[in-house]
Amino acid sequence: GENVEQHPSTLSVQEGDSAVIKCTYSDSASNYFPWYKQELGKRPQLIIDIRSNVGEKKDQRIAVTLNKTAKHFSLHITETQPEDSAVYFCAASRPGNNDMRFGAGTRLTVKP
Amino acid sequence: EAGVVQSPRYKIIEKKQPVAFWCNPISGHNTLYWYRQNLGQGPELLIRYENEEAVDDSQLPKDRFSAERLKGVDSTLKIQPAELGDSAVYLCASSLFGTSGNEQFFGPGTRLTVL
Question: Is residue A87 predicted with pLDDT exceeding 90?
């Protein structure tokens, strides 16, 4: 089955700096890659996703890139703000299969 | 539109006791998931339903865990008997079935503490 690895496990940046979180996946058939943000004590919420037919997607300060050949994808947050502090999870799933596998998470701390 | 509803939000029980969690997915979502999230880790799939059929329960510890989604809408996850290692947050999520992956919407979770 799919195996998703996520790095780093913790990341601390200064407010205004950029943050990058990377994930690799094992199943070359996976074609959907969402990123979830989970604040302390709250539910995971989708912040951005990408499908395998595109290489990059942006939404304001957040972007995701996908390299299908290398089987890795990354989350980029620019101009970080203290409210970006949370745990971020990447995930991957296959077509026609709603089974989604999550990475272990990255705890991002943005210092004011 | 109401989101995924779960109850209870918190549950504290002693080991060997039974416990049940309830989930009501977003209206119209045919796929329902139960995840377990241990502290500091990502959600781990326990079971996935498409309508009333459990299509993936390979990660469900069947000796003590059971789940049902009798009418293809809300679902119940049960643990009997609970063990200390079952302490975790149990998340329910729902999505619309599709061919290229679909956003999963999560409920607030039930935080289980087994003493």
Answer: yes
Q: With beta carbons under 8 A apart, name residues in chain A contacting B30.
A: none
Q: Whose CA is closest to A99, among B61, B42, B56?
A: B56
d(Cα B16, Cα B32) in Å, to the nearest integer? 27
Extract the tokens encoding A17: 């700096």
Which residues of chain B are modeled with pLDDT < 70?
Answer: 1, 98-101
By Cβ distance, the residue of B50, B97, B100 closest to A31 is B100
Mutate to test the interface with A, among B5, B9, B41 (most CBs of A within 10 A): B41
pLDDT of residue B101: 63
What pLDDT, in 10s, does the model give residues B65-75?
Answer: 999 998 889 99
Report the residue of A98, A99, A102, A106 to disrupt the B interface, i.e. the one with the largest count of B CBs within 10 Å. Answer: A98
